[in-house]
Amino acid sequence: MAQHTHDGIDWAARVAAARRTAELEAEALRVVARRLVRPLPDNPTVYDVGCGVGAMSVPLAEALAARGGGTLVLVDAVPEVLDAATSAARSLGALTVKPVLADLASEDPAGFGKPADLVWASRVVHHLPDQLKAVKRLVGALAPGGWLALAEGGLEGRMLPWDLGVGEPGLQDRLAAARAEWFCTMREGIPGAVQLPVGWNVALGDAGLGEISAFSFVIDHPAPAKQVVRDWAVERLGWLAEVCGPRLHASDRAALRRLLNPRDSEFLGARDDVFMLMTDTVHMGRKP
What we know:
Blueprint: H1 15-37, E1 45-49, H2 57-66, E2 71-76, H3 79-90, E3 96-101, E4 116-122, H4 131-140, E5 142-158, H5 171-189, H6 200-206, E6 210-221, H7 227-244, H8 250-259, E7 276-286
Parallel strand pairs: 1-2, 1-4, 2-3, 4-5
Antiparallel strand pairs: 5-7, 6-7
Helix pairs in contact: 1-2, 1-7, 2-3, 5-7
């Protein structure tokens, strides 16, 4: 039976796609991990909450191992993805890796282990019913002087040229608009959903943090891209077609069918003009 989280998404079914994305994000995330770990005390405790398959778990483990070790606590509500992240992080050695199977919507991360010197939470809080409450719980898991790094927002990822020669130009922008509508519907469908009508920096301040700042990083694989980028683009476009299709014009749905058909001359996975360009923003604050 498929296991769904509060957002209704079957994350276990997306392990292969998540691993592919993690591979393409790895270089950028290594730089971010080193930046986050650098100011921590010796032998720190770091939480990766909503760790997924370990996209950031491995860079964090590498950064900790490079500076002498520490404890990495991996938290996720889906066993399949937690197992994947744990195996990947433990393969590096030189640190303690502790997996925690837990639902952040109902369980307090302060009980998952020692107080954290750093909590990393990427694209997870917006899947929880009460986002501000979730942030406050993450703050509660911090040691005094500890940092919360919340990766939320940024710029919509892009992979398609403006004019594909299939359908009308500008398909990427129409997909982005349809995805925004889907996201609102997804949030509204979460049981007990509470709006967060402020920016993430304000939310961090409301949760009691100081020294609030933010930075963004880019994941850039320009065309002509490696096959793994094309495979990622096919998977991503397939997901967008699934969740956004009903919100698109019939001509756009027809274009998507051609782009996703391996037997079609316009199949996305065989095109030389596919790319991957994403920008994520990390919002940070420190516990007094």
